[in-house]
């Protein structure tokens, strides 16, 4: 369970396609999968080492998915039913569990999407954060999750930039330790 954050759940009535997506992702709760970077244009670095997603926590309103990069356990994706849609937030922590200055960015779905694909364009909180952090180019970010029987994909796109990691859902691996800032 997430420590240090109390996320509101708001109106949890989702379009059917989003509920199906949420249910599909929930079926992997407790499991971890290895992935690989398949697109990094232009090359950004920082994603060297073993890439592991762990669908670590699920309830009726929220799914928490730590994303480990080698020994770096600073990232957790949080999908929450909120405001009649799905919200994606990126929780970034330091090794001591404290929040990184660049944390809780993401967005809320703008349409029903599909049972296999949901898109999360940057929300106002995120755009304000990116401006304060002097990275306004990221204001056009849209994050996407794709879930198919054999592959889960995390993708970020904006003009002149694409980053994508595919995870093999056919080969569960031993889940990693709790991400930074979380406890079992």
Write up what this structure looks like.
- This protein is mainly beta and 184 residues long.
- It has a single domain (16-168), classed as Lipocalin, CATH 2.40.128.
- The protein has two helices and eleven strands.
- It has helices spanning 16-26, 124-132, and strands at 32-41, 51-54, 57-58, 62-69, 72-82, 85-92, 105-108, 117-121, 142-147, 151-158, 161-168.
- Strands 1, 2, 3, 4, 5, 6, 7, 8, 9, 10 and 11 form an eleven-stranded antiparallel beta sheet that branches.
- Strand 4 (62-69) and strand 5 (72-82) form a beta hairpin.
- Residues 1-10 have low confidence and may be disordered.
Sum up the structure in keywords.
single chain; 184 residues; mainly beta; Lipocalin; 11-stranded antiparallel beta sheet; 11 strands; globular; disordered N terminus
Strand content: 35-45%
CATH class: Mainly Beta
Round the mean pLDDT to the nearest integer and report it.
93
Q: Using only CA atoms, what is the Rg?
A: 15 Å
Total beta strands: 11
Q: How many helices does DSSP assign?
A: 2
What CATH architecture do you see? Beta Barrel
Helices and strands, in order, run as HEEEEEEEEHEEE
Separation, N- and C-terminal Cα atoms: 7 Å
User: Uncertain spans, ≥5 residues at pLDDT below 50?
Assistant: 1-10
Label the overall shape. globular
**What kind of assembly state do the chains in view correspond to?**
single chain
**What count of domains describes the coordinates?**
1
Give the fraction of residues assigned to helices: 10-25%
- Counting helices, strands and paired strands, the structural category is mainly beta
Report the major sheet.
11 strands, antiparallel
CATH topology: Lipocalin
